[in-house]
Task: inverse folding
């Protein structure tokens, strides 16, 4: 039982390059999330998927796209990377998504640097 | 504007003593609060939570207290152990886009427990 896995762990991009961050969970959770963590900003929600087949914008969606490929996988794509997207990206999942006590489980993060 | 504030970036305590981590919030609509713990190079892991209808929740060495009138909560760790050294995040749960929920995160407090 691996929980939430993310690939890659580290990535360096040049401005304008594209890439996809991969996330998978093996807990049969319905909801999945993408966050970014920046110094002095806390964790901020980029996109989330309340259930398979649905995706919605979070607080900071600009510059990103997501795909909920199936129940297990939720990917985050940067079409044209910018230095402002340098951050640590966390994927998370939760059993239900709508419940008040729904706990989120996090992956280990991807450290992305855009030059 | 930070809706969830952890005003102490760091805290250092002796092993065996009590650690008290504080968190303030500004939005009275928050109805559920969580503490997460994060080790370096790992994602946050859920520690303990409390509903706004309660003023205390205890789980082993960890107790969370909520003072709704002051919009303040605190996490007590007794006794503190060196393995508790980590960054602790306070998060508040709010309704988002209908029945979904999102977490609003504080910036974290780095706890160091000295042997």
Result:
């Amino acid at each position: 039982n691996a929980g939430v896995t993310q690939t890659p762990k580290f990535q360096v991009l040049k401005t304008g390059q594209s890439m996809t961050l991969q996330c998978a969970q093996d807990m049969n959770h319905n909801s999945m999330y993408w966050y970014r963590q920046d110094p002095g900003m806390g964790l901020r929600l980029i996109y989330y998927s309340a259930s398979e087949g649905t995706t919605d914008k979070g607080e900071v969606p600009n510059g990103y796209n997501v795909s909920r490929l199936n129940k297990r996988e939720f990917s985050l794509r940067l079409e044209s990377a910018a230095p402002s997207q340098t951050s640590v990206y966390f994927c998370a999942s939760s059993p239900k998504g709508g419940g008040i006590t729904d706990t989120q489980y996090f992956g280990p993060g991807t450290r992305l640097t855009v030059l | 504007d930070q809706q969830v504030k952890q005003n102490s970036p760091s805290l250092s305590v002796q092993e065996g003593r009590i650690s008290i981590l504080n968190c303030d919030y500004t939005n009275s609509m928050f109805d559920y609060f969580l503490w997460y713990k994060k080790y370096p190079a790992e994602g946050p892991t859920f520690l303990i939570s409390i509903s706004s209808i309660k003023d205390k929740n205890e789980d082993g060495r960890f107790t969370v207290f909520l003072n709704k009138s002051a919009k303040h909560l605190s996490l007590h760790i007794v006794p503190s152990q060196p393995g508790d050294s980590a960054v602790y995040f306070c998060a508040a749960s709010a309704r988002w886009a209908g029945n979904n929920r999102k977490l609003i995160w504080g910036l974290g407090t780095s706890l160091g427990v000295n042997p």
Notes: The longest strand of chain A covers residues 31-38.
